[in-house]
């Protein structure tokens, strides 16, 4: 009985292991009780392997940063010290951001996530989920209104609506796929407003030919509207073979 009481007293008096985030509160928010990591803190991928990051940045209390928890970051994520309180060392954090931002809970400060959202977004940027980031219905809107929520800060407001456009780049020049790529693969196929070239940069002549080769398809007017005559993804030979008259190519 005495030994049992001793164990209970010892356990009661033993200090509780704390997992409070310390040293750097970036990518966290206060939930009314404690600072916890935001979804954007761990939304990215590590540049090097997760296994390597786990070695370089071993979790002090076995838990790593995750959305909603308050796991203490590895000291090496932001300092050269081995215990808290610790002095912040900028070079240590730069290395963590470069190599293991997810393991250290710093994703929100990487270039892809660190930008301003629209002043009046069409949806709540703070509640965007990973499934919305990959959704055909939401990706293009998020890229324009809430780029920091999905790592679209470097996209210039234009992303593919579907995530596998780059699997087969031939679709960009496939005549029968133009309606699809214009709507769903704008980034991969260069159909973003800022990447479509003007007609002055393409070898298209107007007023210098006595006649033009006849169009070989009735779709030329629609294709021209979608950029067939001006977009450099199509070769001059392709434009001449299919829509010479519409594109005014001798």
Automatic annotation (TrEMBL):
Keyword presence, Disulfide bond: yes
Q: Which sequence ranges form a coiled-coil region, renumbered to this chain?
A: none
The intrachain disulfides are 158-192
The chain positions of domain ShKT read: 107-153, 158-192, 209-250
Tree of life domain: Eukaryota
- Alphabetized UniProt keyword annotations: Disulfide bond, Signal
The residues the entry assigns to the signal sequence are 1-19
InterPro entries membership: ShKT_dom
**Protein name per Swiss-Prot or TrEMBL:** ShKT domain-containing protein
Instruction: Give the gene name.
Output: Cnig_chr_V.g17542
